[in-house]
Here is the input.
Amino acid sequence: MIIEELVAVHEAGKMVNPDGVYGQIEGGCLMGAGYTLMEELITEQGQTCNGNLRQYLIPTVKDIPNMKIKILEIPESHLPYGAKGLGEPVLTPTAPAIANAIRDAIGVPLFRLPMTPERVLEAIDSVKSV
Here is the structure.
């Protein structure tokens, strides 16, 4: 997986634990990048073919891109301490952002995850053959 730079902007309510907020955003973005570009469960006749971490690829420390994180700290008046949760919300926009970056780069949208190099090349070749 090669992402040179990832920019994440999130509205986090009031940050009770700033280190935790940044860590959650970094981890969620990396998870999103992993399922967008690497992770694929392969099955044949109902049997898992890549059922271990040697064959089922996930991001490692070597895959962490340069990250720029911006927090919009707007306390939520209806929640304790003004804080909000940052579980899935940091993961959700990552795949569409990467998909849009790929589309902008090659001029063809991809709709299947993971967006592997092979699938990107197939998309480029499909345009050439039209």
Observations:
- The chain has a mean pLDDT of 92.
